[in-house]
């Protein structure tokens, strides 16, 4: 990396890592809490209670948990380049991150189904979505904190080496 770019990256790493981890707390805590909040959607609730619970769950998902997921992913993506972490444990981590994103979307889907169809689509027992969320979370934490040497896995070279590709347009030179 160019020296001045490397200096900027080193200054920015703690800020991006702090943003990554702070957003993760909200994201991971939030998607673990969502199944519990969903379980409170009981068709026998009064209309007002149902509406209140529905609004709280919906707002938590849309204005807290999902934006936190976006911040975590964006900050993490910058960290890949700042830390030059194009290594096997990262690819393994990204596989489990994809599963976590899938679980996040699934919980969003349950939320819509439960909120829109009172009494028809009851939420699943909370332990099932919590398990689906917890498993990739634990795998990610083991990978990122242990940074195991996975070099014995044969990754295709397009994943491990720069492709020396050029941008499809001219970049002005100074
Ligand atoms: C697209 C999503 C993500 C990307 C691209 C990403 C990428 C990264 C990168 C490159 C680092 C820096 C590693 C280092 O400094 O050696 C990092 C740190 C970290 N990530 Fe992520 N991450 C993502 C999602 C997650 C998720 C979902 C979790 C937890 C459930 C997580 C937990 C952590 C932790 C705990 C650290 C600090 C590790 C350390 O400093 O040693 N990340 N992440």
UniProtKB/TrEMBL annotation:
Cofactor(s) the protein needs: heme b
GO BP terms: protoporphyrinogen IX biosynthetic process
InterPro entries: HemJ-like
Reaction equation(s) it catalyzes: protoporphyrinogen IX + 3 A = protoporphyrin IX + 3 AH2
UniProt keyword terms in alphabetical order: Cell membrane, Heme, Iron, Membrane, Metal-binding, Oxidoreductase, Transmembrane, Transmembrane helix
Membrane-related topology note: Multi-pass membrane protein
Subcellular location: Cell membrane
GO cellular component: plasma membrane
Main location: membrane
Pathway terms, separated by semicolons: Porphyrin-containing compound metabolism; protoporphyrin-IX biosynthesis; protoporphyrin-IX from protoporphyrinogen-IX: step 1/1
Molecular function in Gene Ontology: metal ion binding; oxidoreductase activity
Transmembrane portions of the chain: 20-38, 59-82, 94-115, 127-146
Family stated for the protein in its record: Belongs to the HemJ family.
Listed name of the protein: Protoporphyrinogen IX oxidase
Source lineage: Bacteria, Pseudomonadati, Pseudomonadota, Alphaproteobacteria, Rhodobacterales
């Amino acid at each position: 990396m160019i020296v001045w770019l490397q200096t900027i990256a080193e200054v920015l790493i703690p800020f991006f890592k702090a943003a990554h981890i702070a957003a993760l707390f909200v994201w991971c805590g939030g998607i673990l809490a969502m199944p519990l909040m969903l379980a409170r959607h009981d068709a026998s609730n009064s209309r007002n209670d149902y509406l209140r619970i529905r609004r709280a769950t919906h707002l938590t998902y849309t204005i807290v948990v999902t934006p936190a997921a976006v911040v975590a992913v964006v900050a993490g993506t910058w960290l890949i380049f700042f830390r030059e972490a194009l290594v096997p444990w990262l690819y393994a981590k990204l596989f489990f991150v994809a599963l976590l994103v899938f679980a996040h979307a699934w919980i969003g889907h349950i939320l819509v189904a439960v909120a829109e169809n009172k009494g028809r689509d009851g939420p699943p027992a909370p332990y099932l979505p919590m398990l689906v969320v917890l498993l990739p979370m634990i795998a990610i934490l083991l990978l990122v904190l242990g940074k195991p040497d996975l070099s014995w896995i044969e990754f295709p070279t397009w994943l491990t080496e720069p492709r020396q590709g050029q941008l499809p347009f001219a970049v002005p030179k100074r």
